[in-house]
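Dear support,

I submitted the protein below through the web form. The confirmation email said the job was done, but the results page showed an empty box. After a refresh the structure appeared. I'm attaching both so you can tell me whether what I see now is the final result or a partial one.
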Amino acid sequence: MAWSTSASFAVTFLQQVSGTTYNLSSDSCKIALYNNSITPDKTVGTAVLSRYNGAASQWITANEQTSPTPWPAGGVALASQTWTQASNVNTFTAANTSSGAAATLSNVYGGLVYDVTQASNGLAFLYFGGANSVTAGVFSVIYNASGIMTVTT
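What the results page shows now:
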């Protein structure tokens, strides 16, 4: 089974309440693009399994879709990140992310949003609805109006 949904990693929330301090308003975060040879799993039990290019993680560079300059291996940094709380909903969001220059990418099925500051631990994976591509154009990730991820308490 390959990509079929978007989700946040449960282990990220476990870490947050167990002492790992994520500051999603100021930590350095990125989004890396991936092909369809992985099976995203939000229930992984350890951070290393959600980690960008981590040992035993499926989020390795061999599964990444890159264009050498505008969308490099490791992804593109998120901009204007915010972690806000309104009523009982906490929301992590950022400005839409684009290659900024002409990229050539194919078979992009989704992306891994991860926190570089916290050992490159995965925060969420985003399914793009199927294969996406661009030839000598700008590749953009447009985040949901509700944010990259939300937590309802």
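Response: this is the final, complete result; the empty box was a page-load delay. The radius of gyration is 15 Å.
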